[in-house]
Design goal:
The chain is mostly helical. It is built from five helices and no strands. It has helices spanning 2-11, 14-45, 47-52, 69-105, 112-124. Helix 2 (14-45) packs across helix 4 (69-105). The N and C termini lie far apart (73 Å).
Length: 125
């Protein structure tokens, strides 16, 4: 029974649960980015180039009869978009952390007890 309780403690650690949630959200985010590339960017931006090459999707681009460099280009576009969105998210998180740090490091004025002590000392003089 000890091994089961150890496994349960390991599986329920915050890091493991956070990682699992991150993987699930990452998979869903990947589908969103794939849809953005395939359904929005490719038709809007690459439509003239693809129609000149008699293709409907960037993934269909090939060279030397079978090397699918269009798949590579699509993967690079996906990566760039994901990296940019994650950059924006992390930049926003860091900005909010800096605001919290500034608020936390702002020196507080003297406490009421310190002020009363100073007044008492001045009155004694």
């Amino acid at each position: 029974m000890g091994m089961i309780s150890e496994f349960k403690a390991f599986a329920m650690k915050g890091n493991v649960v956070d990682l699992a949630i991150g993987v699930i959200i990452g998979g869903a985010f990947g589908k969103i980015v794939s849809s953005l590339i395939g359904d929005v960017i490719t038709p809007l931006l690459l439509k003239p180039a693809l129609s000149a090459a008699n293709l409907s999707k960037i993934e269909e681009l090939t060279v030397l009869g079978g090397v699918k460099y269009g798949m590579f280009i699509s993967a690079v576009i996906n990566f760039v978009i994901i990296a940019f969105v994650l950059f924006l998210i992390i930049k926003g998180i860091n900005a909010s952390k800096k605001k919290e740090e500034v608020a936390a490091t702002t020196p507080a004025g003297p406490t009421q007890e310190e002020l009363l002590t100073q007044i008492r000392d001045l009155l004694k003089k």
